[in-house]
Amino acid sequence: MSNTVGIFGLGLIGMALVERLMAAGHTVTGHDVDPARTEILAAKGGQPVTSDRLWQADLLLSAVFSTDQLADIIAAAPIGAGKTLVSMSTCDPDEVAVLADTAKAKSITLVEAPISGTSKQVEQGTALLLLAGDPSGLDIFETIADAISPNRERVGDIGSGNKTKLAINCILGLNRAAVAEGLVFAKSLGLDPETFLKTALNSAARSDVMVAKGPLMVAGDFTPLGRISQSKKDFALIRDMAARNGHGDLPMVDRYLRMMDNAEEAGEGGLDNAAVILAIQRMAKG
Fold first, then answer.
1. Which domains are seen in the chain, by residue range?
2. pTM score > 0.85 for this model?
């Protein structure tokens, strides 16, 4: 069944969602604060609209950068909208739970489906969607979710989707840093990075992260599939959530955030998160 799906936020993930939904025959409307992004949407056959008109869609997806931007969407939403809004970004789990009550007062059902995976994995239909919140709202989302990915898990009440996403991101980010540091160390020993990576991929150290990011690190190809700035935002949230829940000392998270700070200070915030290797190279030199 064809639906009209409205998307707030047309960045890497938002545009990947556009392509998946349109390929499945859905009509896509979209809004972004950057006019250049709406021009790309139009070129792909989607319909750029104002944020208020976006609420005329059958179902709304949010792929914005931050929790504050999600809050702004709900604050500006019409009263009595009677729609389901699916938050697909990494957001603060506690604040999302509060926003669900704010949305409910406007007859909006806010549910979560944060994406575990890169924009490329979204394009390929292989990303994992972490569904949480009101079951009836999730049922509505499930009517179009196959167009995005068949890989989905319902993980609990509102907020649980982002809690799960942050815990997964913690493992992924630290794994990226481990791969990068291993490559830097191998090169310092005089090993050829490409040969070393090939060998490591045949060892017990192999991981999906090494498969996906290792070749990019060796090639120095940091075309963004997921940006340093996003990774820094997520890890800052991981640190803050840990502190709220009585676990303030996460030493590897703190170290990773120092790498992200180093990368941003070098002007690399817009690069793929595989560029953590550049920060490690600088930090290894003292």
1. 4-158 (3.40.50.720), 163-284 (1.10.1040.10)
2. yes
